[in-house]
Amino acid sequence: MKPLRIAILGTASSGKTTLAEALARRFDTVWVPEYLREFVDVAQRIPVEADQIHIARKQRAREDEAAPRARRFLFCDTTPLMTAVYSRHYFGGIDAELAVLADAHRRDYDLTLLTAADIPWVADGLQRENEEVSITINRMLHEELAARGIAYVPVGGDADQRIVQAANALAAI
């Protein structure tokens, strides 16, 4: 049986990874880490515009690789849609191939969870975002979701509250 893909979106330091890991433990399944973090750690640099499509493709490929190991749910710590939002912010637009991957979000994910920016912001190594930029990215993410007609479930509060909110949303699908 094909697992339900659960997209977890949000700005830097909004708890996406913590939530993905916790939900995978709770539902005894796997999760897909954010490839951007690995890219930055390995390359020891922030991505440039030409890297955006590679990052989005790799994120999607990692999901496809993990899907056969997933049980009922596959939790995805970000998606190509987030890459598109960052591309729009940092490079002034979204290239055509990245737009296609971002447009597939409604079709490819069975539920989108949106992490609130209501936990303390923590710097993330070479990641270029700061708390001020996170506010802008959050606004842009909401705009992209609305423009693409993507429904989402907001999750906020402490880790336990987020897990309960996400579990309730999962029970409804």
UniProtKB/TrEMBL annotation:
Residues 5-162 form the NadR/Ttd14 AAA domain. SUPFAM superfamilies: P-loop containing nucleoside triphosphate hydrolases (SSF52540). It comes from the Bacteria. Coiled coil: none annotated. Pfam families: AAA_28 (PF13521). InterPro entries: NAD_biosynth-regulator (IPR052735), NadR/Ttd14_AAA_dom (IPR038727), P-loop_NTPase (IPR027417). This is AAA family ATPase. It comes from Duganella margarita.
